[in-house]
Amino acid sequence: MKKNNLETIRHSLSHIMAMAILEKFPKTKLGIGPTVENGFYYDFDFNKDSFSDAVLPGIEKRMREFIKSNLIFKKENITLTQAKKMFANQPYKLELIKELSKTKKPISIYKTIDSKAKTLFIDLCAGPHIKSTKEINPDSFKLTKLAGAYWKGSEKNPMLTRIYGLAFDDKKELDEYLEMIKEAEKRDHRKLGAELKLFIFNDMVGPGLPLWLPKGAIIIEELEKLAKDMEQKAGYQRVKTPHIAKEIMYKTSGHLPYYADTMYPPMILEEDGQKTTYYLKAMNCPHHHQIYAAEPKSYRDLPLRLAEYGTCYRYEKSGELFGLMRVRSMQMNDAHIYCAEDQFTEEFMAVIKMYLAYFKIFGIKKYIMRLSTHSKEGLGKKYIDNEKLWKKTEAMVRSVMKEKNIPFVEAPDEAAFYGPKIDVQIWSAIGREFTLATNQVDFAVPERFNLKYKDKNGKDKTPLCIHRAPLSTHERMIGFLIEHFGGAFPLWLAPVQIKILAVSDKHAKYAEKIMNEIKDNDVRIEMASTDETLGKRIREAEMQKIPYVLIVGDQEKQNNTINVRHYQRGQEGEIKLNKFIEKIRKEISDKSL
Ligand SMILES: [Zn+2]
Ligand SMILES: [Zn+2]
Predict the structure, then answer these.
(1) What's the gap in Å between 475 CA and the centre of ligand 2?
(2) pLDDT single digits (tens) 269-298
(3) Element (H or E) spanning 552, and its range?
(4) How far is residue 458 CA from its own chain's centroid?
(5) N or C: which end of the chain has fewer CB within 10 A?
(6) What is the pLDDT of residue 4?
(7) Per the CATH hierarchy, to which homologous superfamily does domain 3-170 belong?
């Protein structure tokens, strides 16, 4: 079934819902009933009738009966006078009619008619609608929730009751979506972040500024280790830059004045009678450009790849802050690759390969890249005026993607000012979508900073610059990973990798000996005190989603073994310590999932 049709079905379901509501609560006044993502809603004024979500299953049942009776939708255009008469006891509709009459657009209604040609319901509506309820699968929708909603979104107006419904092409899709929502709630990174003690927010520090707790900091360290390792192998060099810079730098980069409202307000420093304005850095690029410019470059110095886990600050509006996904301070897996034009393809391909390597490590199976390109009309306005270079870089990007079989879509006229960009959409283990990182080709900013290199003939050339951040920011990446793994991190990433539990006090010494031996192998292991019952300690370790729980009692002490239990795989039984250490060392170094 086509998507357009699904939209029409969703909207038709909102009429059918209104119809079922009016039948049960005839005094109800109707608001509006549009479609939304994945479904529809309708706003009702129940006019003192009490309404709770306990009524929803009954309404849903009645809707199914309506659908099965093959009702017809019929459009009619009516005059203003007819409309006013028809909706005389529907004050919200009258308000809409009044507005409509001012626009001189035709006033249309949709009738829902049964097999005996009897009109069961009329709504003011421009359509479109399905022809008949035959087109709706009665099992593919569900009424989900109630919410309060002001008429026309203004708090000066009465509060109406909004009933939401979901609708899909078939029951399977609906069930999958419901399952995904249920699972997503359990995996919410804000909820798990608190339960697993990974990060907090604090009023005195400020909104959108996460504080990473020791366990969260371990995940950060592991990700940085991974990034440093990958980048070192790929020929990157690490740099470090300060968190602030003078206004002039952001004016040169073009961030000021255009992006001033997404930056923290300036700091004015008075020194030796001179005022200087500083900004918190919103981007690492200008700093890296200055490192490039620090020494004259020749073609032999390229490609130059500068990497930094750089902390940036952006002023996101308070209403837009969301857990770790939208924050005001972020540590970015940033790097800038300066290269000659004839090195671009290879460099870009290497970046894409790095993305894919990360996806494999984290078990990200579904992803798509979106290539945003320029438009001819925008040249010299929205985009740097160099059509030849645009076409060339876009063609290079396109051919790399095709050659590597990377799924991608093109978004014409959505490029950045200075070059084509690639957004990466990934899907978590439960099918939730995330935008990870942007990968940009920049052929303009190096020029603004007057970055040069001498080519083989001793001529000055401007390098291209690739901005890339495959691991995004720690904040967004860890937010994603928490939800992707449901908090049960793979061994290499888990803040506590092993918990050892002595059955009773008399086994504590043996447990401690085992713990120390494991610790010597660079494994993060903790021991739980025997104050609590064994059952309680096991449950506690499970709540913390610790990959391995080792239990030692009389038998293990006597056999010089441990009893192993894995968070996902369950009981693995009694095993010699050296065997176990060998096994987990491999699991950690392989980054097994
Ligand atoms: Zn309609
Ligand atoms: Zn950059």
Answers:
(1) 18
(2) 999 999 999 999 999 999 999 999 999 999
(3) strand 548-552
(4) 47
(5) N
(6) 60
(7) Threonyl-trna Synthetase; Chain A, domain 2 (3.30.980.10)
CA dist., res. 118 & res. 29, Å (int): 22
- 3.30.930.10, 3.40.50.300, 3.30.565.10, 3.40.50.150: CATH of 194-243+281-485: 3.30.930.10
- Provide the residues around ligand 2 (an ion) whose CB is within 5 A: 285, 467
Residues paired with residue 310 on neighbouring β-strands, in sequence order: 332
Q: What residue type is 380 in one-letter code?
A: G
The number of angstroms, rounded, from the C-alpha of 40 to the middle of its chain's C-alpha atoms is: 23
- Ligand lying nearest the CA atom of residue 8: 1
For position 3, what pLDDT does the model report? 52
Ligand nearest to the CA of 310: 2
Q: Where are the domains of the chain?
A: 3-170, 194-243+281-485, 498-589
Surrounding residues of ion ligand 1, Cβ less than 5 A: 125
Distance from the CA of 34 to the center of ligand 1, in angstroms?
A: 8
Q: How far apart are CA 500 and CA 546, in angstroms?
A: 11
The pLDDT of residue 322 is 93
- 586: confidence class by pLDDT, cuts 50, 70, 90: very high
pLDDT tier at 1 (50, 70, 90 boundaries)?
Answer: very low
Q: Which residues contact 557 (CB under 8 A, 6 or more apart)?
A: 507, 510
